Amino acid sequence: MAQGDDKHFRRSKKEAASGSGLRRLLVPGLLGLLFAVSLAATIYFIFLRTASVPVPVAEPVADGEAVVEQPAAATVEEALPQPPETDQAQAFGDGDTLILPEAEPATGDETALPEEALVQPGQNSSYEPFPFAQEETASGSPPAPETKKKPTSQPQPASQPPPLILDDDAADHSVPQSIPPLVAEPTPAKAAAPPPAGRKPRIAILVDDMGYTKKIGEQLLALDLPLSFSFLPGTPHLRELSRAAEKKGRQVLLHQPMEPKDAKYDTGPGLVRRSMADQEIRAVLTANLALLPMAAGVNNHMGSAFGEDPQKMTALLEELGSRGLFFLDSLTSSGSVGYDTARRLGVKTARRTLFLDNTKSKDAVLRELRRLVAIAEKTGTAVGLCHPHAATLDALREYRNELQRRVELVPVGDLVR
User: Fold this and answer.
1) pTM of the entire predicted model
2) For residue 32, with 0-12 CB atoms within 10 Å meaning exposed, 13-18 middle and 19 or more buried, which class applies?
């Protein structure tokens, strides 16, 4: 019995010893796990607290002579750079370039324009697409009021052809119509002088985009004003209207389509592109001029891309020079090299002063006509470009007597040199 008790005692002692060893292993392990959990929780709360800590501005911003510290952002998100707010009056696009309100001084000796001649934001800058389908009806009644649609950035379905844009700047600049692009007016180097005493200032008015609208085209030709007319190649009424213009003694030009920066616009047939070889450019120009044998000169339709390429403009202007034709730079881009290239090549040339019918209302066109006259009275000459719109026709009819009283209206070719 004593031996059995001894064995039981030794077994109990051994079990107690093994239980004590297990406890010695578990206690440190549990303490370590508790410490790790506490440390992770501490780090997490520190991170959340740091995310909302104000971020100070690194550098002060000068405000006049004083240095003003910018207030710290409330959160990290507010401290990140935000898109700048742009005033519509200063945001103007020209394809991929930004057109500034004033052009750099030119190097030629052309006549300077007064400050009033410069296009101001929202004034006389570019045109909306010309809705020829609505301009005149089969019955000859006035067109219904246009419903403007908000521009959309969604691409057109592949099954639909690109829109035919006939007003130069709308296609060239490709910006929402609510923010018209700014095209800088020419700012020549030499100061201009008013016309000599007893001589009226001279103005030329060129009607672009002729050939699509027969009724308004005929009405413009019937005006008792020596307007000039520029025809797009391949238009349905080119032949009859250009012959009518020649018969009435009106000067005729080719409105040569040139590649715009935005390729989605269709300029119509007879387009010259930068990708063309020089010989191909001359061939296209020759074919277009064959449609207008009475043409005295050429001005560009669109051309914000082609007109900025000196090499391609040289090829085109050399062909014009060989035919004794002049070139009028429509200035659809402030980066146009047409005028300067023509001067360098000895081709007679001029530049437009104003677009007259940016806003298609009679009052707006009348306002631009008065501006054109005021510029001519200060500089001696001015060139206005317009289009076959009903509002333009009405304004010219109303302003005809005042125009003839204050200025001498001449063909565009009389103002090139």
Assistant:
1) 0.60
2) exposed
